[in-house]
């Protein structure tokens, strides 16, 4: 084996999926040396392309991209494929604009009451963005390499040895050393397993199939989502089908996915005798829901599917992982630069674990009402009634689109822990634009010299922005973390001691 100890990297990231790549961008923004080791030689895969690779981005994800100046590129990638995306997003072809679904039960945009979200202002992130994984990864990889991250493909991590000072990583017969290692290496994470993170949760109830087929008699299937006595199928003509077969997850990754097998499952689940002439593409997945009990062990951290896996129902896994990266990047960077308060890095797991646990439960709740059983059908009927009401649709939209996300940061102000509203500031920029350098922000709408003087004590970590915004939502002062979450806020004259405490807590003494 060839052994090589290059200059130690500040951070090694295992996995160049969307989460690893976005994290690499975050760390490069802070000027750290970043090595990304990716197992696959070739970043392209038909499963990342349309139609299977289509992913809807949640509000926190689009806000994160807006705050780092990535949203325009991602929207441009979406536009470039708009025709193919429209045909993949078959559920959009309806008279009313759908806003999401719960276990296949849709709710509609015109039922959603956004006025309930009084802490939000309209932002570019409100434009619903759906993009294929390949385009997303291409944008993120180009940004990460352009910023100087070293991305090596064909370097699957095989072993990890952490010490108190560094982490040694074996990949493709070579040895690498980093001060920190982040496992972004997906659901079967080698980093997670090598470092003994526990990963507990619930076993699967079904095998899900995503297939691209040619049918002899397509008219036997009903387009859209269909619940049947045997499971559920979604059909987007001419040949894209998602199937859920309640087999306890028995088939997943146990045998090759053959035409004969898919034919049998499709007939049974659809309760038809439809015939498949050709199987062009197929992959399986399950509703296994597991989560690492902590996302940090010493110098090793987990993010994305490496930290949590659940069924793709409701489309939240990617968004959850990108949220991990946004939460982790600035904390790890401040820790490495020694500007962080001592427990800042531990707040990553403390904040993100409950968010992941909630999403796992959200996906379990969907499975519970999809089972081909009378009790599940009865529950479905109740949810169908509730989701069609204004309050119901608003509740589901808040959960599915991530608007309800709030970290428990203590503090009495209702905005603390929430994503900062995208205030339009007097200099013509929005808060999102001010966050592009990943510095914190002290927004002082009443232009108080005492606050400016206070902010100057942290001027390498936060920017002070003063002046009346277009709509201040009743606020006078807001302290924003580099990830865009509110650390402290005040409606009236700010309490100086509270401000010092919040600044020290998040940006160091
Ligand atoms: C059918 C389906 C539909 C989905 N739809 C949605 C949706 O609409 N919305 C949504 O938010 N989510 C959705 N998801 C989930 C989403 O795709 C994942 O949560 C997301 O891809 C996770 O990103 P990641 O970077 O953590 O992991 P991955 O995308 O799995 O990337 C991990 C990377 O690590 C690499 N790797 C693996 N092992 C190693 C190793 N040992 N060393 C180095 N590299 C390694 C892999 O090659 C890969 O490139 C869906 C998933 C499926 C299966």
Q: What this model shows, in words?
A:
The chain has 509 residues and is of the alpha+beta class. The protein contains 14 helices and 24 strands. Strands 1, 2, 7, 8, 9, 10, 18 and 19 form an eight-stranded mixed sheet that branches. Strands 13-14-15-12-16 form a five-stranded antiparallel sheet, covered by helices on one side. The chain is globular and about 75 Å long. Bound molecules: flavin-adenine dinucleotide. The site of flavin-adenine dinucleotide (FAD) has 30 residues, from helix 1, strand 2, strand 3 and helix 8. Flavin-adenine dinucleotide (FAD) is lined by residues 14-20, 37-40, 55-56, 156-157, 184-186, 190, 210, 285, 304-305, 312, 315-319, 321.
Named CATH topology of the largest domain = FAD/NAD(P)-binding domain
Note the total helix count.
Answer: 14
Assign the CATH superfamily of the largest domain. Answer: FAD/NAD(P)-binding domain
Low-confidence region ranges = 1-5
- What does the main sheet amount to? 8 strands, mixed
Provide the number of structural domains: 3
CATH class of the largest domain: Alpha Beta
Ligand identities: flavin-adenine dinucleotide
| Mean of all residue-level pLDDT scores | 94
Shape: globular
As a whole number of angstroms, the C-alpha radius of gyration is 24 Å
Give a count of the beta strands, DSSP E runs of length 2 or more.
Answer: 24
Structural class category: alpha+beta
End-to-end Cα distance, whole Å, is 46 Å
Beta-strand residue percentage? 15-25%
In percent, how helical is the residue content? Answer: 25-40%
Give the second-level CATH assignment, the architecture of the largest domain.
3-Layer(bba) Sandwich
